[in-house]
Amino acid sequence: MQLKSFFKEPLLHFLVIGAAMFLYFQWNSTGSNPTSGEIVVTAGQIEHLAAGFAMTWQRPPTDAEMQGLIDDWLREELAVREAIANGLDRDDTIIRRRLRQKLEFLAGDILDTAVPTEQELQTWLENHSGSFRSEPRIAFRQLFLDRERHGAATQADAGALLAQLEGMGADAEIDDLGDPTLLPRETGLAPRSEVAGMFGSDFVARIETLSPGTWAGPIESGYGLHLVMVREYIDGSLPELAQVRPAVEREFLNDRRKRQLAAMYARLLENYRVVIEKPQGGKLAARTETNGS
Length: 293
Fold this sequence. Notes:
Order of helices and strands: HHHHHHHEHHEHHEEHEE
Low-confidence stretches: 1-7, 19-32
Helix content: 40-55%
Number of helices: 12
Number of domains: 3
Distance between the termini: 25 Å
Number of strands: 6
Structural class: alpha+beta
Largest sheet: 4 strands, antiparallel
């Protein structure tokens, strides 16, 4: 077996996680059995307390401050031991979550942290283009027809106005045409979402199908009917990797870590037999048993 393949073995990963947890808790513990009547404050623990103080206050602690840190740590140790002795750690959501965080933190030391290659990031960008593709942008003119004002003749009036516009040209003056409205007659290049926020998504979907430079309609929005001429439509595009590299790398690393943690939990689950029982009056069809193996 090649050395590179050896380090990818799941069993090795599991053993390393176990060893890391053992060393961590050995270093972070009192150096004695938590269930015994002895508490030993190790030299490593004292160094850790002093380092934490120095990081916060930018100086080492005095002898009195060091003794205060040790006394506070002892009170915490006593509280933890008494809480465990009285079963206060069981069925506590906060404690369970904290233990899970510690496990995943320790596991993070052996997960693949290699810097992704340019090809890996490029492939990620292409496979997740929806997250990075720029929005389409639309520039258009529109004239509004109020249904309440035109009544049953709304469609006919729209057709007559459209015929008038077709003979006027793309840049004709239209300020005196259509019905009064607070909506802009002329909209410069704007993101699709911005136009949808103003006129509605169905309206945008319709005008995206129009050929630029030609009046068309009527097209309906939440306000009423519109005659529309698209001046310019720029489709969304995928940016170059260099333009979004930090975001792509961040998403790539986050996804890789999630997949590696999922694989770790799958391997750990192989050591257990999970039984899921139907709650009283619950919706599970039957008692379900899941074997990790």
